[in-house]
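Dear U.,

For the methods section draft, I wanted the exact inputs and outputs in one place so we can describe them consistently. I've listed the two proteins in the order they'll appear in the manuscript figures. Please don't edit the token lines directly; just add comments below if something needs changing.

First protein:
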Amino acid sequence: MSLRSVSHSLISNLKSANRVLINYPCRRTCNNKKTTNHPPRRVYLYDQYSDIINNNRAVFIFQNNNLGVNEFTQLRQHLFEVSGQGAAPTKLTVVQTGIFSAALRQTKYANLETLLSGPICIFSTNADDAEHPDLLKKSVEGLAKNKKLLLLGGKIDDTLLTQADVLKVVDLPPLQQLRGQLVGTIEAPARRLLQTLEQPAGELHSVLDRRI
């Protein structure tokens, strides 16, 4: 075998060895990638918070400034009473802000995350306004009386609300009353026009009656 053949063979073997050494760590790194396993408690809370966000018409966020156990119990009792002794289920839930933020980010309400500051508790209900017209107003008023709770905002149905928006919405009259007011507003001009048209005819009829 010539010297050139031997050199060519050695170079080929070295290239093959280098390819093995270069590729092997990559395969090892790829095989070590694993899915993150969260603690069961975190998974449970994440699922609970996701259910609160997605399956309730109204979700209002309050900052919780060291609310005591007794105070929390009193607030829950108030919600039970204004809901008709539980006829319209309402909840006040103290949440872990980080996990609640993670749950929000996976929903169409992700922009609410900017409201989260410090310890948080969540008021939620799926009650229908037609059946319980004063529920939201009485609930928010009762919660707002506690100085350790600060309303930050929330959502009703698919509408995101600031603190001012929530206060305006809960202060609105019931839907049926609004409809009645709207119908009255629409019909009022027509009634006034009809009265104006009927007045001369009525006066003429009165004059003719007196002359006859």
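Second protein (the one for the lower panel):
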Amino acid sequence: MQDLLKVFPLFVILTIGTSLKCEVCYNLGLACHGPVKTCPPKKDTCVVAFAESTIEGKTILTVEKSCDSSKICSTPPMYFYLGLGKTLRTSLTCCRGDACGKVKPKLPPIETKANGKQCPTCYAWSDTCNAKMMNCTGLETYCFDVAATTYSNGQRQRNIMKGCTTKSVCVSITRGQSHFLGSVDVVEKAKCTPDVSRGSRSSELLLLTFSGLLLLKFLS
């Protein structure tokens, strides 16, 4: 017993010494700088996330660095067309140490050629959304429908988003809860037509999506 008590403090020191540390920051543009923080036990990777929001030709790019679960590392780059000139592109990269400072955005390309698919599209920070049918482009052969409630600084706001996206994004769509930029986003509905998400459970799906939605709110 005494031998175990002698070993335990050493084990604690070694555990603390190997804790993951990541730079945590958020900024407009391609770069941000912030404090290096020790990650919680379930956050086992550093993440650099980019989101680009466009409305009627006006584009804003943001970057965020944080700790997160390595489960999100397989999240594909995402592209959403919301109609009437509104688009959202996102990407994330998992990294550690100095490599995080060299990450560049890998946003999916913007397609302009119509592919024959049409989806109801709309974007609104309210309980209702007046959807209009729009032509999808490129690989966007799926319609998505997302509804969520965002809590920020004690305020509740409901968001509805519908539009065109790709199969890889739809495969990942699920209901869940994600914590991002200090807000809590409760996903009430997240589905695609046609349905390709059966059996898919990626609880971190909308991590980047709602970061970009906040930008769209400021742009609109």
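Candidate sentences for the figure legend, describing the second protein: Residues 2-17 form the longest helix (16 residues). The CA atoms of residues 179 and 200 lie 20 Å apart.

Thanks,
Y.
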